[in-house]
Amino acid sequence: MRPLFLSLALASSAACPAAAFAQDTDLELVLLADASGSITPGELQFQREGYAQAITDPEVLAVIAGTAYGHIAVTYVEWAANQAQVVDWTLIDSAEAAQGFAAALLDEPRQAYGRNAIGAALLEGLRLMEENEIEGWRRVIDFSGDSANSWAGPSIESARAQVVAAGVTINALPILPPGDPGRAHGGLETLYEELIIGGIGAFVVTADTRDSFAEAVKKKLILEISGLPGASYAAAE
């Protein structure tokens, strides 16, 4: 006959399988990348390459190793009129794990199409955090895009409020289109600061040009993973 305490423990585990297998980690990070109609197939691949390069960078891996748990959980989602989880939640705890994430990212076909639905994208990031079996000490949505327009779905304002109320920080990476004034005269940086970011320590890192995208992603990941105080940065600095 089983001891009573063991029987109770097993019954509790059977009733709560998600809790029994939950993974604690330092950070749950949703990489939410633009795949809307303004992003060409070449640009989509360029963005993926930028994230793949950043997540495998030795500096980024060193910051991950220095976190309280020594690892973070990451998923990659592309957004447009719909949202597609390109790479499932992955625990990054080594260079090999990071390389596996990068390889999966570069191998998947495009799955998101159409015009912007930014509010829906933010809520999808929140859903993926709420429904996974990971308990992150911090939770962050890393949003990137080349526009602040949203044509369908929930408003950006209501979605942002819901995400922030859940204790999630939204950071943003505006990809400035040619001729964009940036922070001046209501440029994309200003719009992302006013409309997109929110939560504790929220910040903007800007890709001034397409060529600076990978460096901007790397800088942003280092700030998010380390939990440094938020500020606004330009990749060209």
CA-based gyration radius: 19 Å
User: According to CATH, what is the class?
Assistant: Alpha Beta
Domains counted in the coordinates: how many? 1
Helix- and strand-based class? alpha/beta
State mean pLDDT (0 to 100 scale): 81
Which structural traits does this protein have?
237 residues, alpha/beta, 41% helix
How would you summarize the topology of this molecule?
Layout: H1 4-15, H2 17-20, E1 23-34, H3 41-55, H4 58-65, E2 72-79, E3 83-92, H5 95-107, H6 118-131, E4 134-145, H7 156-165, E5 169-174, H8 188-195, E6 205-206, H9 213-226, E7 233-234
Parallel strand pairs: 1-2, 1-4, 4-5, 6-7
Antiparallel strand pairs: 2-3
What does this structure look like?
- The protein has 237 residues and is of the alpha/beta class.
- The protein has a single domain, classed as von Willebrand factor, type A domain (Rossmann fold).
- Helix content is 41%, strand content 22%.
- The chain is built from 9 helices and 7 strands.
- The chain has helices at residues 4-15, 17-20, 41-55, 58-65, 95-107, 118-131, 156-165, 188-195, 213-226; strands at residues 23-34, 72-79, 83-92, 134-145, 169-174, 205-206, 233-234.
- A 5-stranded mixed sheet has the order 3-2-1-4-5, sandwiched between helices. Strands 6-7 form a two-stranded parallel sheet.
- β4 (134-145), α7 (156-165) and β5 form a beta-alpha-beta unit.
